[in-house]
Amino acid sequence: MDDASSEHEDVQPDANYNPDDDVDNQDDDDVQGGDSVPSAPKRRRTSISSHSDAPATQSTATSGTPSKRMRSGSLCRQSPLAQVDSGSLTVADTEIVEVPCPGISSWRHYEILMTFAPSSAHAVHQSTGFPDYAPNKAGGIQPLKQRFILAEVQSLLATEPWTTMFENRVKRLVLHSYSALAPRARMALDKYMRFMEKNASGFWHGGHWFAIDTSTQGGAVMQRERKRQWDALARTVETKQRECVAEGVPSTIFWEAAYWSLPSKPCYWILMNPRSLNNQGNPYSLAEQLDILDCREPARVQWGTATRDEELVGHIPKSVSMSLLPEKARRDNPASRTYD
pLDDT by residue (tens digit) across 127-149? Predict the structure, then answer.
């Protein structure tokens, strides 16, 4: 079977990329998932975009001809661009983030073949509100790893983007009144805030899970450290939240964006095709890509890039009987008097 045909046909559920499966390269294998106090059914949320400053559009046109050997059943489950061989995609095609319509299980995100995040040994459902997609194991994960440049990633991590994430976090409550909390509850939440600050790197990595090329020693070391950090945080975050509840904090307060929760599955960061150029005619830097990603999907930075209070609660299931406080009550309603 030729590569193009294989790429299109392998869209069955067992072709989905599962971090637990990639044992040979020890990349993202057997990662544990966070399961914080507020739990809710899986939500399949993706964004539609062709670039940061471009209108959100859905790709409907294709620039090539699907392989003749593709099965009709597979075609029905593929988006327009997923039906096109990678080699036939235009540069414009590779800049599109497709949205999967109902019934679609394979689509392209910056050219990379995607699918819904599969279940793992540690998590069946993604935490509500967080991105719920992953590279397709057959046609997505390897091309994505090829975009991993160790030196560039190391340079980005050296800037500690998680520090910026903590500094720019949501600092107000929009569902609960801080003044109504008992002193011991406030102290417990201050302690949780310290936990967030100390573990900001783990929270950031959980929302920005890039595919690491572990063929080099540096990549392998980076992967091991990230996995260690993620596993430790996944084992701890729920315990910390329950400790707050034991001190009189309402469990519903962890629906507030101000108090971070860990997604049950890492949220993949799909790097752009190197052929994509910014307004200056240069390939997008990782810092530029990070800004685009975080603005498009605020959940990755715990809603720190949201511009309206409504965005902070849009992910909460209707089964949770909560609503925004009146606007006046939200103005002077800090998540902490200690952390500002």
Answer: 999 999 999 887 789 999 999 99
